[in-house]
Amino acid sequence: MDREQRWWGLTAPAWAVDTGLVLGVGILQVYTSWAAARNQPAARPLDVWAYLILAGTALALAVRRRHPDWTLAVTVAGSVGYFALQYPYALSPLAALIAVHLVIGRGRRATGWAGAGFLVVVPVGAALLLARNPDDVVASLMWSLVVVVIGQLAEVSWVRREYVREVERRLAAAEHGREEEALRRAHEERLRIARELHDVTSHTISVITLQAAAATEAVDRADGREQVRTALGAIRTASRQAMAEMKAALGVLRPDRGAGLRRPMPGVAQLRDLAGTLDGTGVRVEFVETGLPRPLPPALDLTVYRVVQEALTNVLRHARARRAVVTLRFETGGVVVQVDDDGGGADPAGCAEPAGHGLAGMAERVAAVGGRLRVGPGPGPAHGFQVVAWLPLDAEPVA
Predict the structure, then answer these.
(1) What are the residue boundaries of the structural domains of the chain, listed by start?
(2) What is the 3-state secondary structure (H, E, C) of the chain?
(3) Cβ–Cβ < 8 Å for 162, 106
């Protein structure tokens, strides 16, 4: 049972509301019936049974919230018995009308209207059968109208309550949908930043590692000074490039402070420089461009660069290759990016170390711009490994 109830706009303890309702209804039923007895001389005089019926129907309202059907049954039975015993009528069925309104208003419409039907059938039937005077017939018809109006008011209350519940449900669903959309966008943004950081750091660290190893080996040789200088220069260039790309990738995290420092993301124009970072690592990179070059949308331009970057990183880390060929082919409806190497291919025995998450990130990037990716053993007797990505020129990036 509710601990507090709102009554005429005021909040009060439930027991106070129940007590006030029972006393008020009981007093009204007893007093109006006693007053009506003087104007209805043909009615049966009020006795102990009449007062017990009036008090009992009022008392049943105290449990209306926990047992509405039981309250309806008691109040309707008491009111029908009161009419059947021909006691003077006034507000004697008030408790029954309240119970009918309560039950219908809670959505138990069939039960509520059944109770309302009993309230109408008995007095109206008795008035029509006995027909002691025309006033009784008119009063019975008026009583029927009152019961119907009370039932309709309860229907309106139920419809309004259902409407409010539906609005609240839709608002809650909309709020839940907004929260899910925000979480989805945040998750996608984290994945995007993670891919950027992986592509930047993975390639740069691989280049730095190999160049540092070459410099270390050259230190002990008498003629290795020039090779050390070249390796250290490559390390410095790769480090600076990585810092610039990381600032650009992380600029979205500080849009208010980093807007002035934001740099353009790399693209096709930087592919030759990217291939040059592998000088001195033992892998010779050739760059081939065919077709009619044209400017690419920023998202597509960055995707081309990242695909080549990740493919060359895998060549350094996994393939044990000596040669790699990067082919960029401009077609009518798209761009084809292809990277071939002469290393160990897809055979695990030929790989220096197991692959990480690079290929998965590459596939996500290609799919985000509506492209297709194929990776696997290269054709021909040289085998090796091949990465081929087709990227449409007119595709919109997928959020």
Answers:
(1) 4-132, 179-392
(2) CCCEEEECCEEEEHHHHHHHHHHHHHHHHHHHHHHHHCCCCCCCCCCHHHHHHHHHHHHHHHHCCCCHHHHHHHHHHHHHHHHHCCCCCCCCCHHHHHHHHHHHHCCCHHHHHHHHHHHHHHHHHHHHHHCCCHHHHHHHHHHHHHHHHHHHHHHHHHHHHHHHHHHHHHHHHHHHHHHHHHHHHHHHHHHHHHHHHHHHHHHHHHHHHHHHHHHHHHHCCCCCHHHHHHHHHHHHHHHHHHHHHHHHHHHHHCCCCCCCCCCCCCCHHHHHHHHHCCCCCCCEEEEEEECCCCCCCHHHHHHHHHHHHHHHHHHHHHHCCCEEEEEEEECCCEEEEEEEECCCCCCHHHCCCCCCCHHHHHHHHHHHCCCEEEEEECCCCCCCEEEEEEEECCCCCCC
(3) no
Q: How far apart are the first and last CA of the chain?
A: 50
**Phi, psi for residue 141 in degrees, rounded to 5:** -65, -40
Written as six digits, the tokens of 359 are 């290929």
- 381 versus 91: the higher-pLDDT residue is 91
User: What is the reported pTM?
Assistant: 0.46
Per-residue pLDDT at 373 = 92
Amino acid at the residue 81:
G
Superfamily name with CATH number, domain 179-392: Histidine kinase-like ATPase, C-terminal domain (3.30.565.10)
pLDDT digits (tens, 9 = 90+) for 66-93: 888 888 888 888 888 888 777 887 787 8
Nearest by Cα to 388 from 345, 330, 305, 326: 326
Reading the block at residue 351, the tokens are 């790989």
Do the beta carbons of residue 310 and residue 203 sit within 8 Å?
Answer: yes
